[in-house]
Design brief:
Rossmann fold, Hypothetical Protein, Haloacid Dehalogenase-like Hydrolase, Chain: A, domain 2, 2 domains, 8-stranded mixed β-sheet, 8 helices
């Protein structure tokens, strides 16, 4: 029975700012050749997912981007190489006003699917996937609903609860950084949609991740795997802890999954 193998990107498939190692590319290719479904599930925007997917040689695959706000099908037959299946959006206005009222110097970025970001200040290179356009007027940030907003400022984590009261989903993605997506979304909710399309039984789902935005995904999967460098609380969610990113732990786990007897990978969800 084919499995759905959900893979985080940064900290799992590659070290941030680097390319996917050859050993990991080979491991991904082999599990796909064995008939399993590989689904990239990441906090990256779609424009940040595409080069990783192409580097892995992925075609005719599903991807989950922006922490579950966007689900797309990658295919060379599609214009631009992908088809957006679902893009969940929310009203940026209340989020931007709350952030500005509490932290006037906050950096804000509003995602533009397939291109990049509208920003109130330019972010450092490598901090956002895709291009940036600094708006001439602040209200340009909230002219249309968005899949994701990034808020960046020292102490921004104190806004997590106030943001939840606005009916959105905030999640930390590093010190001084909060991603905001629509209510009730996570990698897990988008992966469940993909699982249903692929007709994979819940007991044949696998997930590999390393960080806080992987919590729901790991809980969703029947066989959660944590990277070796993950925080202790993330490891506690896993049925298996593989090696750290510097030792190509994802490749090790994928090789083991490919070779394992299917009965070892079934069971009750964590």
């Amino acid at each position: 029975m084919p499995r759905l193998i959900a893979l985080d990107i940064d900290g799992t498939l590659l070290e941030t700012g680097k390319s996917v190692p050859e050993v990991t590319k080979t491991a991904v290719a082999k599990v796909r050749a064995a008939g399993h479904h590989v689904v990239l599930a990441t906090g990256r925007s779609l424009v940040g997912v595409l080069p990783v997917a192409y580097g892995l040689g992925l075609d005719n695959v599903w991807v989950v981007a922006s922490n579950g706000a966007l689900t797309a099908y990658l295919s060379k037959k599609e214009p631009g190489g992908y088809r957006v299946h679902e893009a969940r959006t929310f009203d940026v206005d209340p989020v931007a006003h709350l952030a500005r009222a509490r932290m006037p110097r906050v950096k804000m970025a509003v995602e533009l699917v397939g291109w990049g970001w509208r920003v109130n200040q330019e972010f450092d290179p490598g901090h956002l996937n895709g291009q940036q356009r600094v708006v001439a007027r602040l209200d340009e940030l909230w002219t249309t609903p968005a899949t994701r907003v990034v808020l960046c400022a020292p102490g921004i984590g104190t806004l997590l609860e106030p943001l939840r009261h606005l009916g959105v989903t905030p999640s930390t993605a590093g010190l001084g950084w909060v991603d905001v997506t629509p209510r009730g979304l996570s990698k897990a909710s988008a992966l469940e949609t993909v699982r249903d399309h692929l007709d994979v039984p819940p007991e044949h789902t696998v997930a590999i991740g390393d960080s806080w935005n992987d919590v729901e995904m790991l809980r969703w999967s029947a066989y959660p795997i944590a990277m070796g460098q993950a925080p202790t609380s993330i490891k506690a969610l896993a049925k298996h802890v593989t090696g750290p990113i510097k030792h190509h732990g994802a490749a090790t786990a994928l090789d083991a999954l490919r070779d394992a007897d299917a009965r070892q990978l079934t069971g009750v969800r964590a």
